[in-house]
Design a protein that fits this description.
The protein is mainly β. The protein is built from 1 helix and 4 strands. Strands 1-2-4-3 form a 4-stranded antiparallel β-sheet, with no helix packed on it.
């Protein structure tokens, strides 16, 4: 009887472990983006970027909008990482943005965003222009 319980426990243990998710095979890519935005109350912006992933370059476009306190215009040149990529297409999607920032002639900025695919963008870089903002909004990335 004791042997039957041990066999049953072994089979159940195998079935439970087979149903558990396996470690992700996600990778990290390098991202470079130039994003220009401007506005008064409602801010709009757009730009272009390149994802470098597995030794290949994948161009993409960025568009966005924010609502809140926004005044002025600025251009940001962000570089950073895209985490949790399984394929280049995982970068595409909508990213929520919230926060405050500003630039007067030149400054620096940084952002961390996540989309529904689980991709996390960690970007930072210089910002040039005259702009102040405290707004919420979103950014959409589309692969070209």
């Amino acid at each position: 009887m004791k042997k039957n319980w041990m066999t049953l426990a072994g089979v159940l243990g195998f079935l439970v472990s087979a149903g558990l998710p396996t470690p992700s095979l996600a990778e990290t890519g390098q991202v470079a983006v130039v994003f220009t935005k401007g506005g008064f109350i409602v801010g709009v912006g757009g730009g272009q970027g390149v994802l470098t992933f597995r030794g290949k370059r994948y161009p993409f476009t960025v568009s966005g909008m924010s609502v809140g306190f926004t005044i002025g215009a600025s251009t940001s040149k962000f570089v950073g990482r895209a985490l949790n990529l399984r394929s280049p297409g995982d970068l595409a999607g909508s990213y929520a943005v919230g926060g405050a920032g500003g630039a007067l002639a030149a400054g620096a900025g940084g952002v961390q965003l996540q989309n529904a695919n689980g991709v996390i963008l960690q970007l930072s870089g210089p910002r040039v222009g005259v702009e102040a903002s405290a707004a919420i909004g979103g950014v959409t990335i589309a692969m070209q």
